[in-house]
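Class prep. Sample record?

___
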Amino acid sequence: MSDTIAWLAGAFVGGLIARQLGLPPLVGYLIAGFGLRATGAEATEMIERFADLGVTLLLFTIGLKLRLTSLTEPHVWGAAGAHAFIFFLLSLSTLLGLGWLDLPYVRDISPVSAMVVAFALSFSSTVFAVKVLEDKGEMASLYGTLAIGILIVQDLAAVLFLEASLGKAPTLWALLLLALLPLRRALLWLLEQSGHGELLLLFGISFALGGAQLFELVHIKGDLGALLLGVLIASHPKASELAKALLGLKDLFLVGFFLSIGLSAAPNLDMLPLVAALLALLLVKAFLFEQLLLDFRLRARTALLCGLSLASYSEFGLIVAALAVKMGWLSADWLAIIGITLALSLIIASALNARSHSLYELFSARLRRQERPQRIPVEREIDPGNANAMVIGMGRVGTGAYDSLAQDRGMQPVGVDADPQTVARHNAVGRHLVQGSATDADFWHRLHLDDGHVKLVLLAMPALSENVFAAEHLRKEGYTGTIGAIAKFPDDEAVLRAAGVGQVFNLYAEAGSGFAQHVCEARQAVAKAAA
């Protein structure tokens, strides 16, 4: 126990330093693991258990947000399949070429062993990509949902490979899992009755971990089971609330995952040339994703950001390496080689993703020249119609603002949200919404505000950085109308005004004032009716 506490304290220090340097904390966790491994430390049983729990809860929360229809899109399964095949061939050629150059650890590698390593390198890290997307608040963006779809296709292929390699075919008892479908209504009833506090959290933990164990009993990978169980209840309105309730616990357990990766590697200096060569392939991986997505008629920004979010090697590589060592296909040194390469790939990808929007702005002119003339429907020009007001961010605050403008002010608002499900839900009840991400610089190019119809823009997104980005780009595009934005803290107001926001609404301060005004007006109405 004392070792586990010490390792977690080391992870905290590493994460704190990384945050101060403007990098995601997970970079600090990885470096802390490397530092501890250099002192001879090893991952404790509790750290490994934390890692397993974190991955299971992560896949369960992915399932809660997943729409299976997204996997049927050609640009999802097509890009995933084409990338896996091409990158496998590139990696295999690289490994055999390095062996021909007499590089250590690959000079005597057999074609079969090289194929196993190349297969492992073709996957991207699901844990890393989801963590980065959550930290940036872009899980619901087009490139975020596209990246998740590609990762799920990869994960399904990985599960099939493991099942085939281990010879662990599902037992006949696995057919009983189909009983979950008729039990779905009962499960949704339990979710509904769980309320909003600790019972909801307990339901999520029990359902995710217990369900994963149930899948393991019939020889189906528990992580895949957790993902499918999340999908099973994803359509319920409380699914998003459950995902938020699990967020802190999931992130805590994932610290163990990133820490264990660093603790798993025991490097030698003669491994560095091979690791450097594999890291060079990482840039090829991101570039290949970008080019394939452009071929599937997506915009350059979507293709670049998706490629960067997938620019990592996968924890699956360690699993394949361990299996290959057990089968005698690879030497034990390959565990350290792939572990170091994986950890460094996450550090490089973290730095790139932390600056992904800046990188696009820097190279946007060149990147846009690579776009195809025809685009998929969700990437075409955006027409707000005859709207004279716009609400960006259609959560509870944005929805209330939209309804007030339409019903109390007699205006014709248009709502904007990055989540296609949110857009469809609002349009179904009569509101006018268009899909778009306000943190997408190209969104403002695609949105036609130059006719002067839109006089008012309300920024109702939860993150300060998102509202600041939107305000700055509105002014950059020459918008001269009124911009209003929400703020949570007094310090936010000055930042928003500096970005071009004319009116700032402090949610907490104004909520109290509005509450008192509402009660007083209702009291006066009752008194007048009684008189």
User: Anything to note?
Assistant: DSSP finds 22 helices and six strands in the chain. The first strand starts at residue 389 and ends at 392.
